[in-house]
Design brief:
8 helices, about 270 residues, 13 strands, five-stranded mixed beta sheet, six-stranded mixed beta sheet, flat, molybdenum cofactor biosynthesis, FdhD, alpha/beta, single chain
């Protein structure tokens, strides 16, 4: 599986009144076609790494699989850009409404694709986890420190999943949904429960990102950016704590602030 998420090329840069030739790095983009039971399910435009995680997380977030045991086999052919997935069951009729679906690197082909199964798959959080401010600030600092390729290219979204203490797993992708799917796929692969975890995200919390978090099953999402009005409404409805504008030691809590406590619990 390729880990090459960067391309380097000679470019012309205008700087200080001069046109100069220089080298630049930019994010690689790759189409991965997911085949399920011999049929084309979707083509995901993504960064060319961690294809198995991405495939598992994407299928789980779309309801095609509910657990790892639903998977019979998965074969990645990164030379041709295919993920061949065999399930232990047939896909339901609700996945047959389109013969081909392209999932773009930003927000997807259409709202209909994402909203078709959202109501059935998005989970109302039942987590009992709480965080104190120092944990929130530390997790965002760790995400920023891990985002080395973004600093080179400015062209990747970064996300991490953590328990606020020792567990911290980071992923990056040109698609914001893809970065979250890779994290979800990692947890599925390694049988890591997500109910007691936190998502840390580099971009704004849109309604689609909030729904993705609900599909994964986490109860807290942290961002250095802002949420949208619909995302806050959904977070309130789905019992998810949304924290935004985590910058320079400050942040805003937009929903379910009861999970944010002033001080760490005494053990």
């Amino acid at each position: 599986m390729s880990e090459d998420v960067l391309n380097n090329q000679t470019i012309v840069r205008y700087e200080d009144g001069e046109l100069i030739e220089t080298e630049d790095s930019y994010a690689a983009e790759f189409p991965l076609t997911i085949m399920v039971n011999g049929e084309e399910f979707a083509t995901v435009i993504c960064s060319p790494n961690r294809f198995e995680e991405l495939t598992l997380g994407f299928l789980a977030s779309e309801g095609a699989i509910l657990k790892l045991s639903d998977l019979k086999s998965i074969q990645i052919d990164d030379s041709k850009g295919f993920a061949h997935v065999e399930l232990t069951k047939a896909l339901g009729d609700h996945f047959q409404y389109s013969s081909k679906r392209m999932i773009a690197s930003c927000c997807g082909k259409s709202r209909e694709f994402y909203f078709q199964n959202d109501a059935a798959i998005a989970k109302t959080s039942m987590t009992q986890i709480t965080l104190h401010p120092e944990q929130i600030i530390t997790m965002m600092e760790k995400l920023q420190s891990a985002s080395t390729v973004f600093k080179q290219t400015g062209g990747l979204h970064n996300a991490a999943i953590s328990d606020g203490k020792t567990f911290f797993e980071h992923r990056q992708d040109i698609g914001r949904h893809n970065a979250l799917d890779k994290l979800y796929g990692y947890c599925i692969q390694h049988h890591i429960p997500v109910r007691d975890k936190i998502l840390i995200f580099s971009g704004r919390i849109s309604s689609e990102i909030l729904i993705k978090a609900a599909k994964i099953g986490v109860g807290i999402i942290l961002s250095k950016s802002a949420p949208t009005t619909l995302a806050v409404k959904l977070a309130d409805d789905l019992n998810i704590t949304a924290v935004g504008f985590i910058r320079e030691g400050n942040f805003n809590v937009y929903s379910h602030p009861e999970r944010i406590v002033a001080h760490a619990d005494e053990d």
